Amino acid sequence: MGKKQRRHLYLFFACIIITPILMYGCSARPAIKEANVFLSQGNYKASLSKYEQIIARYPTAGDRVLFAMGFIYANPRNQQKDYQKSLECFQKLINDYPQSEYRQDSEVMISLINEVTRKTSLISEVTSTTQQKQIDTLGQEVMSKGDRINTQQKQIETLEQEVLSKGDMIFTQQKQIEALEKEVMSKGDRIFTKQKQIETLEQEVISKDKKIIAQQKQSEMLEQQVKELEKKIEQMKSVDMNLKEKKKSFPEK
Q: What are phi and psi of 229, to 5 degrees?
């Protein structure tokens, strides 16, 4: 609401507080005074209730009460203000009391309220449009972020598949390595066994070599003995021949 409209409303507000006691008879004065006290205290609900009682008991004060009620419903300080009810009060005053001195003020109030409502509606529309644009922008950002998140999720899923695939490959390779290790161990056992067999054979060969060397030595010793025997035999043969020669030289008797 603009400053000019607020000044008009506050001016009317001041008028309805000051004038009631001067404009009505003594019978309505106490009730109107009480309603005005509630109004001055900011107790708008109690003031409206009191004005409703007044209009029921003092119909001649109807135009004044309708004006006061209309203004209370439109009062910017009233947190429960209701422009529609305010317009209804001013319009009823105009319709039911066409000669009332409040008619012109009621028409001004209706004009002011309509202007305020129109401007409020425009502000609301502009605000709503701005908010809608902000919402749309936020929605676009959310969708964009959602798309990025979705893309990243797909990338993560692809990476997970690659990791799983590589994991399967690694698992397969690990199995192959384990199988090869078992083969190596098995071959190692066989090699170790063969090595033991070779060592055993080597021991046997060494033992046989030792026997052969021993036999060779025995053979050499036998050969030496044979040679020595042969020499002795030759010597004996030589001795025998000498003996035979000597026998020939002796005369027979």
A: -65, -40
